[in-house]
Design goal:
6 helices, alpha/beta, 4 strands, globular, Rossmann fold
Length: about 190
């Protein structure tokens, strides 16, 4: 990795952190029309993964999607307008913080429903494989998702259908888990039986 590449990754991480901190400062004013779920502390994962993707590769995310959206090249003005419920928002002001998308940048969908985009990302990877398209589908989710049925069903389907179906880069599917140790508001350590 070149010095320029490392500097670009760092610049992107700092940019995302500053955007998130600014939004966190502005949120209490009550002008944003949506609850927000920040991804502060998860910038490196988003930037590292998205930095390895091509423009035509696609990502799917969950409710902490700001970093993924920005790291993949989503429009900052569109994201901010979305949080304020404006028609110029990336989802025309109707989706809010947890439904960011920018298909031109490869940000296909994000959702507030835990794990929902996992199955869609695997379906996308399967479609890429079946169509012989050399693209990657990535799904980001938090560690709380592993407790959901869709997590297990999606992994099982991916294995059973051999997604991806070819060797090499074609239709590769990637699962990215952010280990926050706090799935929602309950420490993960309290979910474990000794």
């Amino acid at each position: 990795m070149t010095t320029d590449s490392r500097e670009n990754l760092l610049r992107d991480m700092v940019r995302i952190r500053r955007v998130e901190e600014t939004l966190a400062e502005l949120y209490p004013s009550g002008e944003m029309r949506t609850p927000t779920h920040f991804s502060i502390g998860q910038e490196a994962v988003a930037v590292g993964v998205c930095g390895a993707l091509r423009r035509d590769d696609v990502v799917y995310s969950g409710h902490r999607c700001h970093a993924h959206y920005l790291a993949k090249g989503g429009d900052l003005r569109g994201m901010v307008a979305e949080l304020y419920g404006r028609e110029t928002g990336c989802a025309r002001g109707r989706g809010g913080s947890v439904h960011l998308n920018d298909p031109a940048a490869g940000v296909i969908a994000s959702s507030a429903i835990l794990g929902q985009t996992m199955a869609v990302a695997v379906g996308t990877a399967l479609a890429f494989t079946m169509d012989g398209i050399d693209r990657v589908a990535v799904t980001f989710f938090g560690d709380g998702t592993v407790e959901e049925g869709i997590f297990h069903e999606t992994l099982n389907f991916a294995v059973m259908r051999r997604v991806p179906g070819r060797m090499g880069r074609s239709a590769f599917r990637t699962f990215v888990v952010a280990g926050r140790e706090l799935p929602l508001s309950w420490p993960a350590s309290k979910d474990r039986v000794s």
